[in-house]
Amino acid sequence: MTFQPLTINDGLSQGMINQIIQDRYGFMWFATKDGLNRYDGYHFKIYRHDTEDTSSIASSFVQALFEDSKGRIWAGTSSGCVDYFDHASGKFIHIISEKNSILNGPVQQILEDKQGNVWILSSRKLMRATMPDKVIREIELPALAATDVLNGGGIADLLISDGADMYLYNTSSNAFYFSKFPYTAWERHTFPPPYGGDNGVDKQAVLEYGYRILEDKNRQIVYAVCANGIYKLNNGNAAEQVLDYSLFPTNKAFIDKEGNIWVAQSGGLGVYHAKTGQFSFIVSADEKTQAVLQLLVSAYVDQSGMTWIGSAGYGLLTLNYQAHHFHHTERSSVFNFFERDDGRILVNNGGDELKVLDPRAGVYIDTIPLKDLEPYYEKESQRLGWYVKNNTLYNYIPGTTERKSYPLP
What we know:
single chain, elongated
């Protein structure tokens, strides 16, 4: 696979990419340790904290990003500050400032529910910002989760699904909590014990990384990625294990528009293919690029299908993953082609034959000679086929033993 790097040499402010999003205007946004970066495909615009400008971003160390339903770009910082960017004015509006920060830690995630409320997660607290009045309220955690937090645990992951269900994962109890809108009651759920010991992975380390909760919004499927593999969830319960594979770590995972789940592993970047149920690794022939892939911190698939990979100190890698789905034929030239009713492709490379390509198998399954008028019989389709060669129009009729020629004037 061919990756394209994007680094500080290209204008990126810093190499640690904590989160990536794309806004409704097509701009890419990157949260780094030294500023919020906006990229238009050619140039970077960098937003940093300016002590002389009260409308600048609250802190240059940006941890979390989110675009809400109104198009506001929310930014959470390592110091527990929360701002949103107003496109019209080009200014940052401070929701939680450093002086009145109540999060007691870095901002990990920012999400929005179906009523437009913005949820802000730190490792110790869950807050809700009611818009547009900007009222901040701390949300009472489930009893056991709150106890675990007091005992040194933390909230590792939060998901609000398109169906408005909320999933909250706690590291200490190795469990997650499920709640339906309006989130007044919580259910506790666990998975089978994680792998540990027998496969060389420290069990306590597995517990600390825990689960990553992801949603395939196009298909309305919620997954949990954990040390035992990948599970489909149904109302918070582990309904089906779709991948039985030892994964570690699991906290660096994301899902693309095709429903495939990407998981950064110590051996590289793994991909669970939703259609086939197979798990494979994305590799690069370039050793330096492969090393960067093992340092994945964040990732995002943009509107065009381009995959953006943020690393721990080495900037960005981009991958046109869909382009790698094309299969090359044995000849590089194609003179003409069309699709039949049965989905097969008839290809002429300018020679004396048509080849029949089965796109599902990725191989040619038959050949139709053009240099003679021998009858050719095909059962699968009744579609008429017309071919031109040497000023002659040929009519090939699948399902019969007839091929006719019509000399052109």
